[in-house]
Design brief:
This protein has helices at 2-32, 34-41, 54-58, 94-107, 123-126, 129-135, 195-204, 302-312, 316-322, 341-347, 367-378, 392-395, 431-479; strands at 62-66, 75-78, 84-87, 113-117, 138-143, 146-154, 157-163, 190-192, 216-219, 225-227, 235-241, 267-268, 284-289, 292-296, 327-329, 351-354, 390-391, 397-402, 416-422. It has 480 residues and is an alpha/beta fold. It has two domains: 2-39 and 432-479, no CATH class; 48-422, Metallo-beta-lactamase, Chain A. The strands form three sheets. Strands 12-9-5-4-3-2-1-18-19 form a nine-stranded mixed beta sheet. Strands 10-11-13-14-15-16-17 form a seven-stranded mixed beta sheet. A three-stranded mixed beta sheet has the order 7-6-8. α1 runs antiparallel to α13 (431-479) and α6 (129-135) packs parallel to α7 (195-204).
Length: 480
Amino acid sequence: MASKRTKKKAINFAKRLMWVMVLAIICGVALVFTNPIEKALKIGDYTRVNSVDTAVVESCGLKIHYIDVGQGDSTLIELPDGTNMLIDAGTSDETLISNLINYLKNTAKISSINYLVLTHSDDDHSGGMKAVLDEFPVQNIYRPFQVACGTQIVDGKNYPAYAIAAEDLVNYLGTDNEGDKTNENYWWAARAYNIAYCNFVKGIYSEKWTDNSDATVTVSHAGLKIESINSSVAFSIEWFEPQIVTKDALITLENPHGYEQLDAEKTVGYAVKKYNGKNNSSPIILLEYMDRSFVFTGDAEKEVENDFISDYESNSTVINRFKNVDVYKAGHHGSSTSSTADFLAILNPTYTVCSCGENNSYHHPSAKFLERWEAQMQKQGTARVQSEPFITFKNKTILFGVAGANNSSGLAAGEIKYCVGIETGVFVMRWIYIVGGVFVFGAVLILTVRINKHNIVSTARSVSSSTKKAKRAYNNYKKW
């Protein structure tokens, strides 16, 4: 009898295992179609267009994070010599600032910053700078040629007034012939009076590096260059705009500093050309590594792009370095005022990234930018890679990597890889989680349902038997 019961249990167990295997096969087939299912259900990274897994990119010598900071801008560059650079720090929104710091610390695992670049003063680039300065020791800082000012009210409107107490470029203030400080035509440098920029300026002159030395502060200007501290992993980061002021390009007749190095107390660099509007204080920066190239332009608009073309069109060496770049960070979030047809024709980028927030009031990236970009991409013919630019509100954070000579993933030296859809601090439901949950629940159910049924039946019989016995005992007691 016992042998038959044991044999029956073995048969039942084998049947349950068979059903578990069938469930595993069904779940495996479901995972094959993960991408279209996630896109249909709008879960996971349904906008993912990865060429590789994140781990492969992370094995590269150079890594560039185009961080999703909403309607703002922030880019982290992990350089192959072990140093790093952060360009801009997003908006003043507290939640987005917290997300940025969390990304830097916990996803990119950054504990200090070697090169911190603020392209220009606007809140959507400077908003998180105070938090960055508070959270990380910074070694070198690159600031725009914009004087941080308090405000004065003229005819009911706020205007920049005198430089704030911490400002080091105070000698570049100016007035018109009547002493009017609101006349921008007579300012020697652009002025900014938004709180985020003022906080940035207050912070940079008290910033300390890990050895407790003061951070070096430099005004961005053409000719600046950063090179590897390790000769075995050579790279270069070079500024090409804004141009240093010369006698042939006077900004104002009253500027006594136009041909001299900055005479500020702590800042190094040179006085540079001043444009109308804050955006055009942004530099044009080229990063080169392993014959790969990346261009960053902040919010520089067509005036700066046209000056770049004018300044270097006769310099074939420079122009050739900018031709056919691998990745272009679209100027001014893909605004209609940036990325002119002539500038795009030189860059002819393989990949383009736009940093902007969903449903932003500026409608970035603009229809005009996309039209010019599409016209340029069509010229690439069969070599074309992108059908549309990467956009941070669609693709989340975008991570590019360039493989070094020795990498753990077996990539060819100089090979470029990317992945998108990287998020931090947010749980993202993915199809694999759903399938995994279904498999675990189903397997447990298949393996235990009969046992539970047997236990329930046995318990019911035991209760019934006990009830009958109690009833008989009670009846006997009554008779007695």
